[in-house]
Amino acid sequence: MGVNMTPERPEAQVIAIAGLGLIGGSLARRLTERGRRVIAWNHRPAPYDRARAAGIECVDDVAELARAVPDVLVLCTPLKAMPDVLRQLAPVMDPHTVLADVGSVKGQVRDEVKAVGLDDCYVGAHPMAGNEFSGYAASDPSLYDDALWAVTFDERTSYERLLVVVDMICEGVGDRIIVIDDDTHDRAAAMISHMPHVVSTALANELTEMPERNIAQALAAGCWRDMTRVALTDPDRTRAMVEEDAANVARLLHHMGERLESMAALLESGDDTALAQVREFFAVAHPYREYKARERAGVEHESVTVRIDGDDENGTAGATESGRSTWRDRLLASARRGEHITHMTDRNTAIAEIRTALVS
Amino acid sequence: MGVNMTPERPEAQVIAIAGLGLIGGSLARRLTERGRRVIAWNHRPAPYDRARAAGIECVDDVAELARAVPDVLVLCTPLKAMPDVLRQLAPVMDPHTVLADVGSVKGQVRDEVKAVGLDDCYVGAHPMAGNEFSGYAASDPSLYDDALWAVTFDERTSYERLLVVVDMICEGVGDRIIVIDDDTHDRAAAMISHMPHVVSTALANELTEMPERNIAQALAAGCWRDMTRVALTDPDRTRAMVEEDAANVARLLHHMGERLESMAALLESGDDTALAQVREFFAVAHPYREYKARERAGVEHESVTVRIDGDDENGTAGATESGRSTWRDRLLASARRGEHITHMTDRNTAIAEIRTALVS
Question: Do residue B355 and residue A218 have CB atoms under 8 angstroms apart?
Fold first, then answer.
């Protein structure tokens, strides 16, 4: 175990996992392998024999997870099952336990946590891990190898509880984190997944409704295959994902609509000024191309120290002239710089790698 | 060799190749392997030693290709080199020789062919073959394994010359064809490649200009990687490709802009009517998903006979009540039904496989 983050409980953390699917099952096995005590519940006991053989304690009732007073109780059920699980947990949660989750949208989960009055003990989490399979049978601790988690807060999140979740991820799972607010998470997820799913579907729709669709499809190669792959995934799941993040997706769809319409106008004009602007359009993404080239070249990650000053909630110490700087602002600024935190050296200091710095 | 399409020349075709890059070099080797006599020219003689070892005759001057009076002379140079090559060929082309090419836009090549007065002997062609490499060193006859070619015509194309190119591709190369007009080709290419390249770049631009770009990139997974892959390719090449097909790309960008803006409006509204329309949006591409599922399942290709009636240029015989049906209409209709012609059984009849039938 790494740095002792919670001096009143020097022993390894006890983690409860609600839901032994691909993500929850892999997490339970990973934590067990790395010496944590894991208690788990699943809506059906089917995976219990295999889970017990892997050293995971299994219980029949989700409320028993809370009654065991773990350091963290992680909700790993599908999003739609969370309200029901939260209703069963609410009456029996001990104030010691931090409630976390692995859901792919953070605003909606926090709203559901608030609805049962558990928001004081909640810290959001979302691991960038998964594959095309599902269920405990597909679980694999190596799913979390070198994975990044987004850990999310709101204005009421306790720094103490945040540290407990950071300890679980960095020391327990052995992964990296960025710490951001729920809305920043959901806007970023809209950008790199939810909105592009709509764009991919719109491309597939355009082809499907074209009279020469069979001719176009006959000429299609890698570009088309790549850009419509996610349009082939279960449209009901995609629709649910888009509707859960509707405002962010809508705003980005407007942006994209404007970008495409303005390129159309430039191509129709075709005069020298327009062609210069077409050239600019293709140059905008240059920092992104450079970043991807560095990534492909396997450039060493630079290591940096991040001062968080979490113990000064008002943040007057360490504040810049431009204003206050609480731990929230400092961690969000670190994430915006492309830093991924790998561990904490004390309560107020993190070590991070610069992994994704995109300058434009 | 297959069916004898040109009874006045019963021997195997003689093919001239201008340009021994990846596409031209692979084509020359493929035809040589399959028993055709191939004469080739390249703007630099660097590949000649290897080409000669592969049985390809190499000449120092592009005009010598025309003077050899081949059955087909195929332009395999980059698009921008074509005007110059065509100027050198024009004074020495024999009326026997059919001029063809492998360019990825067809309207522009035909305009350049017209500019030197060679349109009477021209038939367009575009093989769906290639990879990320270039040059003769990367050439490989298997690039043409089971490939599809678009063969293109305009209102002046001779059926006799079309048959010579069909023979070269189906019997000489051993590939499949669809026969369509230039504009249908360029609209289809805009749909599955040129326009999506702009969309991919617009996505990369949106991320690059977002203040939280590093956070978004940190959360990115397969969806984002797939949808921005072509934005990473040489932006100057992409820009040239888009500008060569500007009108078609612009029209499709308007369509896409409208699709994205209307989805944005539905997500912002969020009432029951809007959500029903969101559901419809995700259902439109269902025929495309079904087609891709059949493709993955490896469903057997149905074989059909296509009556072309090329010898009745006016098409009154075999015309439907709705109007005339020349060989142009019949071949275009076949391509629209998703049929890929594999060979001809006589001058007026083709055998095709149904490969891409997308019904909506």
Answer: yes
Cβ–Cβ contacts within 10 Å for residue A173, how many?
Answer: 24
**Residues near A148 by Cβ (< 8 Å), separated by ≥ 6?**
A127, A128, A175, A176, A177, A178, A340, A355, B218, B219
CB atoms closer than 10 angstroms to residue A268: 15
Q: Taking chain B, what is the end-to-end CA distance rounded to the nearest angstrom?
A: 39
The pLDDT tens digits of the residues spanning B216-275 come to 999 998 899 999 999 998 899 899 999 999 999 999 999 999 999 999 999 999 999 999
The reply to whether residue A292 touches residue B232, judged by beta carbons under 8 angstroms, is yes
Give this complex's ipTM.
Answer: 0.91
Enter the DSSP assignment of A355: -
Return residues 312-341 of B near A (CB < 8 Å): 335-338, 340
The stretches in chain A having pLDDT less than 70 are: 1-10, 312-325, 360
Integer Cα distance of B100 and B109 in angstroms: 10
Q: Give the pairing type, strands B339-346 and B349-354.
A: antiparallel
Closest Cα in chain B, distance from residue A162 (Å)? 19
The nearest CA of chain A is from the CA of B173 a distance in Å of 18
Domains of chain B: 14-174 (3.40.50.720), 186-278 (1.10.3660.10), 295-354 (no CATH)
Please tell me if residue A304 touches chain B, with a CB cutoff of 8 Å.
no
Q: Is B146 on the interface with A (CB under 8 A)?
A: no
Q: Note whether A356 contacts B218, CB cutoff 8 Å.
A: yes
Measured CA to CA, the distance from residue B105 to residue B125 in angstroms comes to 9
A51 closest CA partner among A115, A171, A137: A137
DSSP assignment of A238-287, as one string?
A: HHHHHHHTHHHHHHHHHHHHHHHHHHHHHHHH-SHHHHHHHHHHHHTTHH
pLDDT, tens only, A127-174: 998 877 889 999 999 999 999 999 999 999 999 999 999 999 999 999
Minimum distance, in Å, between the CA of residue B325 and any CA atom of chain A:
18
B215–A184 C-beta distance less than 8 A: yes
pLDDT at B143 over 90: yes
